[in-house]
Amino acid sequence: MEREYELKLAKGKAVKWNGTDGVDAAKRYVDCHREATVTAWREANRTNIVVTGVNPRQIIG
């Protein structure tokens, strides 16, 4: 089931994107915006956040 996720980008901007989970949403976003780096995500209607770690590209590469 797809859900909406809030993605935090390396440049400080936050965007909303759909995916089956946070990693999937990040991959889909970067597939459409090749210059982007996603550093964290959370469900759009939640307060918790998942930080991707030292190398944010590993979740999208």
Describe the structure.
The structure is a single chain. With 61 residues, the chain is α+β, with helices and mostly antiparallel strands. It has one domain (3-59). It is built from 1 helix and 4 strands. The chain has a 4-stranded antiparallel sheet, with helices on one face. Strand 3 (38-43) and strand 4 form a beta hairpin. The longest helix has 11 residues, at 22-32. Mean pLDDT is 83; it is low at 56-61.
Secondary-structure blueprint of this entry?
Blueprint: E1 3-9, E2 14-19, H1 22-32, E3 38-43, E4 50-51
Antiparallel strand pairs: 1-2, 1-3, 3-4
Strands ordered across the widest β-sheet: 2-1-3-4
Count every beta strand, where a strand is a DSSP E run of 2 or more residues. Answer: 4
Order of helices and strands: EEHEE
Strand content: 25-35%
Strand-pairing-aware structural class: alpha+beta
> Mean of residue pLDDT?
83
Alpha carbon gyration radius: 10 Å
Terminus-to-terminus distance: 23 Å
Shape: globular
Q: How would you characterize the largest beta sheet?
A: 4 strands, antiparallel
Give me the number of helical elements.
Answer: 1
**Assembly of the depicted chains:** single chain
Number of domains: 1
Portion in helices: 10-25%
Low-confidence residue ranges: 56-61
Summarize the model shown:
The chain has 61 residues and is α+β, with helices and mostly antiparallel strands. The protein has one helix and four strands.
